[in-house]
Specification:
alpha+beta; Ctag/Cox11 (Pfam 04442); 2 domains; 5-stranded mixed β-sheet; 2 helices; elongated
Length: about 190
Amino acid sequence: MSGDRSKDVSNNVRMLGKLLVVAVMMFGFGYALIPVYKHLCEVLGLNLIDGKPGSVDPVKNTQVDKSRSITVELTSNVQGNVRFRPTTNSVTVHPGELTTVVYEVVNSVPRTVKAQAIPSYTPMEVTPHFKKVECFCFKEQVLKANEAKQMPVVFYIDPAVPKSVNTITLSYTFIEAAGLDNKTAAN
């Protein structure tokens, strides 16, 4: 009987070792997905969450294509306790034309909130042609209690955008950061 017990303990220890190896591998895989996801998004031009203001190439062709008009529809989503919306629902632009639109965010809670805006575009084929020169999405936003901000987006649509594109939807999802440290919350 003691032989069976030592065999069971040995099997349990072996199983525990295997489970620990699997848990460590799962953690490592999850940790490794972050840079893989960022690289994949950069390559595909999707949901760039850490874009830099200087990352947009300057306009090479200063000619505006006045023969075409594209409607840019503006939408927003929020994950958190703030109100976030564009100040206008759409604008009509000519490819190559520098355009400014404004989004408004209001923190209606009695505490400081950190948030990040993540852009997306439809149809997806326009993503490499939609060039933001200035955008609040380039950095994390900090809103004090009951603060409201007007946040501009300056962009142009590359004249090389496919001729079949007549409407583009620019959508931002405004995501509240998971927590504030006490130093930031006190400011």
